[in-house]
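Our preliminary data section would be incomplete without showing what the modeling component actually yields. Below, a chain of 163 amino acids is followed by its predicted structure, encoded as tokens that our downstream tools consume directly.
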Amino acid sequence: MKKQLVGLLLLGAAAGYAHAQNEVYLCVDEHGKKEYKNTGLTKGCKKVDLPGITMIPAPPKRTAAQNPPARAAASSPSDFPKVDGDTQKARDNDRKQILLDEMKSEEQKLANLKKEFNNGEPERRGDERNYAKYQERVGAMKEDIGRTEKNIEALRREIGNLK
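Predicted structure:
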């Protein structure tokens, strides 16, 4: 029984190997569309010679002794330009001011959008005789309000992350 099972497994493996080594045909139809097939019975098919399967083993795992410490990889080179504290502080203040200005303009934009939105009932324009057009504009306004609120939230997070 055991020999039969082993023989059956070997036969299955050999059949799978033989199946993987079948010929491949490149078939081109009358419209110029290329198609790869395992049989060349249709018109316009030519056998393609493919190289054998190449297997490259994975590199061996490195041990902890072979891996350099993470701190060494993160440190900057000795000739890397340094910035003094006052210059960095001035840059940080400039960045914070830019973010604050951007947040102020986003908050102003949000106030204008909400005013125009009028709690979901903005005034209809003359070119919106079709109700679907009006609904489309209202939906776009909702998206704009949501996007602006997300921008403000992101700016607050960024300002909070500053030193």
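The beta strands are 24-28, 34-37, 45-48. The chain has a mean pLDDT of 81. Preliminary results of this kind motivate Aim 1 of the renewal.
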